[in-house]
Fold:
Amino acid sequence: MDLDDLFAKNPADPLVQLTRQDLDPLSVEELDARQAVLEAEIARIQEKRTSAVKVRASADALFRK
Structure:
């Protein structure tokens, strides 16, 4: 899936703006810091997704009975 397709409904979304930001003016240190922040956000998303999958599986199991 293309990012433009994913966020086409809300061009003002901060994630859309982030992906379109020009990285050329950033120093190596700034790029490293940005990468660290984004990696931390990815980890947070993965934890939330794992939790959501577990909750969904529990709900599905409860309502199958």
About this structure: The chain has one domain: 3-64. The helical segments are 3-6, 14-20, 28-64.
